[in-house]
Fold this protein.
Amino acid sequence: MDYSLFYGTNGSEADILARYGALKERYLQGEGKPHERVYSSSGRAEILGNHTDHNHGKVMVATISCDIIACVGKAKNITVKSEGYRDIFVDLNQTDPVKKEEGTSTALVRGVVRALKDKGLNFGGFTAYITSNVFKGAGVSSSAAFEVLIAEIINDLYLGGRLTPVEKAVASQYSENVYFGKPCGLLDQSGIAIGSLSKLDFLVPESPVIEKLPAIKGYTLVITNTGGDHAKLTPHYAAIREEMHAVAGYFGKGFLRDVCYGDFLAAMPELKCKFSGRAILRAMHFFKENERVDRAEKAVKNGDMQGFLDCVNESGLSSLSLLQNCSVPGDNEQPVILGIELSRAIIKDGAVRVHGGVFAGSILAVVSDGEADEYVSRMGSVFGKENVFIAAIREFGTTRVDV
């Protein structure tokens, strides 16, 4: 195993081996026998495409050097043991949604099982011991990493690896939407299942067009958890999706991707009478963000880093002024906006934008390697050094590893 392809320079080989070794020992002590296989499922960084996937948009996403790792052995049903948390148990014969499980990891496991069973697949269970260093509160999709991990364990243990990354992502999204109760798009799960830096076009969500892109050289990704209250944010996420769908519905379409931008602009007098200004602005963000993803893809392929950085900065400004997901209405603290503006004051060569669903949480900076140390230090002095994370782009999506 080439650890640099998974973790970059984040951690020494000795530390990485010690982490895997400790998990193997936990499995052995708990089960009285060695594990059978080991898996890794990473977090992700959303580079571009903020809140567009649910309307069949385009995104740029990267898997990054933090992950959930699992030691696994076959069993009759599914048990997941994570240190410090209550064990998860799912009977493979009981796959209907359980209302009291909504919002829990048990719901995510049960939902993935149901999605795969609904495809007519037959498989057994497993016992998994897991540990995670996926950054907490940083919007890197720990839930999606967990969902895709469950799908890949089943895929590898029982299905001969027949599921494609997209099929695993779709099963995971179904679990989060229907069983967990969060109306997410397909960006997180797809990015984590596919790996590396990729452009995804969700014109046909179940079959997105995937293009892996060259690595970004000379720049470091830094994710900062700016704080804020993460409770009760689901209605705010849902409102973005609902308002975009409503505007699409005016044109007789289910999704904004099916609406012509020229028709959207021409209909502005009627839209202004029928919809809130916020809904119209959010729809405008969708159209402009799709165009930015295309420009950024071209810039990366051509080695035009300034063009790429310009797109990332523009995306951040669009999320702030059009999408309006950088703070919760009525929140006077506004830590995300504070973090963005502080970053703009520090960074001389780079870009910054909101990260993930936001409203409360994290920002992403793309910082030149020469500025990275100073940027990390200064952001840490404001938000706490434990809340500032350097993230290398890793080459692999969720996968079995030989370690």
The mean pLDDT is 93. Residues 277-301 form the longest helix (25 residues). The chain has two domains: 4-213+394-401, 219-391.
